[in-house]
Design goal:
- By secondary structure, this protein is α+β, with helices and mostly antiparallel strands.
- It folds into two domains: 3-90, lambda repressor-like DNA-binding domains (434 Repressor (Amino-terminal Domain), Orthogonal Bundle); 106-274, Beta-Lactamase (2-Layer Sandwich), CATH 3.30.450.180.
- It is 47% helix and 11% strand.
- The chain is elongated, with a radius of gyration of 21 Å.
């Protein structure tokens, strides 16, 4: 099965007949959502054609077919973009993505230093940490104990013993991580670092495996999260994400409004890093 076929299968399993105005019907359903023939009927295509799409034997669906499938499966904007990206890759209509590179521009490193005491990372598509300021390492307790090549924010969330206590809403944080990885996977399905991380975490974490199969899709934007920090207490921060280049690097900075207890906690965290 292709990536497109996997996506279609996963998303039709999440749509109930009642969601699209269909009767539940009689008999036992082998899938919790729509049957293939129901998706085909809603999209106005033949069941044979839809089966070929799911099985990867049809590799060039038209824009009209993609629009119809997006409507039939009740896809939101992010999921529609993902559907088109997968179809473009399968039909070789998409430009070849540039491979991820570990080098971070000097200008970005200077900005990372300038935003202190705000924690900041540079990450690649797989969420490997390519560069960081001291505050960012200190924000996630235990992360700096890992060797640099293992430092990855998704790996931390799913496998580090401290993560469940650090994140006030661990379920929400982990779901967001996986939805973003799914979106990145469409950008470059052949990215070896991303594939290796997915294999690793699927084997290590039942939670990750479950979320990966759900096929939620969401690129990182600014989000608000609360961190239970063992040294400075609770910190609620908002992240801002800037996508830097075609190699998949992004700059993420966590901040809090000046004059608030959260900003004071970040300043205290920064002061603690300088004493180490």
């Amino acid at each position: 099965m292709t990536e497109l076929g996997e996506f279609l299968r996963a998303r039709r399993a999440r749509v109930r007949p009642a969601d699209v105005g269909l009767p539940a019907g009689t008999g036992l359903r082998r899938t919790p959502g729509l049957r293939r023939e129901e998706v085909a009927a809603l999209a106005g295509i033949s069941i044979e054609y839809y089966v070929r799409l799911e099985q990867g034997r049809e590799t060039n669906p038209s824009p009209a077919v993609l629009r119809a499938l997006a409507q039939a499966l009740l896809l939101d904007r992010e999921a529609r973009v993902h559907l088109y990206a997968l179809a473009n890759h399968m039909a070789e209509r998409a430009p070849c993505p540039r491979p991820s590179v570990p080098q971070v521009r000097e200008g970005i490193l200077r900005i990372m230093e300038a935003v202190r005491p705000y924690p900041a990372f540079v990450l690649n598509r797989a969420n490997d940490i390519l560069a960081t300021n001291p505050e960012a390492l200190a924000l996630l307790p235990g992360l700096e104990d890992w060797p640099p090549e293992r430092r990855n924010t998704v790996r931390y969330a799913f496998t580090h013993p401290a993560a469940r206590k650090v994140f006030a809403d661990w379920d929400w944080v982990t779901a967001g991580h996986v939805a973003h990885l799914r979106a990145q996977h469409a950008t470059d399905p052949g990215d070896p670092a991303l594939a290796a991380l997915v294999d690793e975490l699927t084997a290590a974490s039942p939670r990750f495996a479950e979320l990966w199969e759900r096929y939620d899709v969401q690129r990182y934007q600014g989000v608000r999260k609360t961190i239970h920090h063992p040294e400075v207490g609770d910190i609620t921060v908002t992240s801002e994400v800037l996508y830097l280049n075609e190699e998949g690097q992004r700059f993420t900075v966590y901040q809090a409004p000046p004059g608030t207890p959260d900003h004071d906690a970040l300043a205290l965290l920064s002061a603690a890093t300088s004493m180490r």
